[in-house]
Amino acid sequence: MRPNRPFANRPHAKSSVTGSEQSASPSSEVPTLARHVAPVMTSQQRVMADTLNAVNRVDELEEQLRSGHAVVDLDPFMIDASFVPDRMAPSEEAHRELVQAIRADGQLVPILVRPHPAEQGRYQVAYGHRRLRAATELGIKVRAVVRELTDEQLVVAQGQENNARTNLSFIEKARFALQLEERGFRRDVIMQALCVDRPRVSQMVKFASSIPMEIINAIGPAPGIGRRKWEDFSALITKGNIDKARHAIERAANSGRDSDAKFEAAYKALTTKAEIARPELWTAPDGARLAKYTETDEKFSLIIDRKLSPRFGKFLLSRLEQLYNEFQAADKE
Predict the structure, then answer these.
(1) CATH code for the domain of 101
(2) Is the pTM of this model over 0.70?
(3) Which of 3, 282, 299, 306 is least enclosed, having the fewest CB within 10 Å?
(4) pLDDT tens, 21-40?
(5) Do residues 32 and 53 both lie within one domain?
(6) Angle at which helices 151-165 and 44-66 pack, to 10 degrees?
(7) Rg of the chain over all Cα atoms, to the nearest angstrom
(8) 155 with 53, same domain?
(9) Coil, strand or helix at 11
């Protein structure tokens, strides 16, 4: 359920930016793992070549599908998501565009599923999660190719399809690599799934491990944020600033800001020096300066001057429950 880029209902992925999901080819033949891993070059040129090869493989598989390989109609409610999510939540706008495309033209390209390894009669998606979600919302059956896949074949097909058709953000790739590592997949499998070399996989796993997953998930895919800024962020958040980052993300989310903006809010919170809160005086109607208060993003403090009113503090404390109930009632109106 995932890509950041919307998918149009076009017959070929290269026709437009919005054509990727409707044109992303579920394979009639699944990318297979090499029995022996060849020496991997670390150059950017080799990585680009690997990515191009993945695109070509998906194009070939798409052509095979169009040539008449078996496609079946399945009940969306009988299909479960992949056991390792690679994409984070897509924008609602992208989802709506895909729903409209399928409503208008139908689902042009099937999804790829396998028989569920643990539940008889059910299926599990290799890729096509967004098309599955759209079909579920439209109340129609989803067109699918069913293939027997091992776990390794599934994650390789899943990763290569997304790398070939739509750009995973940096944090999505790092998160996917870490999840595969934690599930015990070999490094060569992760390399094939992400079309990167071994050193880059190591960097991704190490990096994703340095940031609490709750923070990554709260921020989201952040497609506009690259590796360097994420690395700076990871160095800051390891200094015990998790709560500060969490509060900043929550405030941004409550304001309806997007994933990039949530990252920027958290980053700013960790790099901005806290201002020293200056106490303010509260003056009673009779002119007595009974209290001082300080207010920050994280707390509100009230200090009663017992020299001026020795019993006012305890009186206020005895009324706190009543005041809180009044506050809650007013807040609901």
Answers:
(1) 3.90.1530.10
(2) no
(3) 299
(4) 565 444 444 544 443 444 45
(5) yes
(6) 100
(7) 26
(8) yes
(9) coil
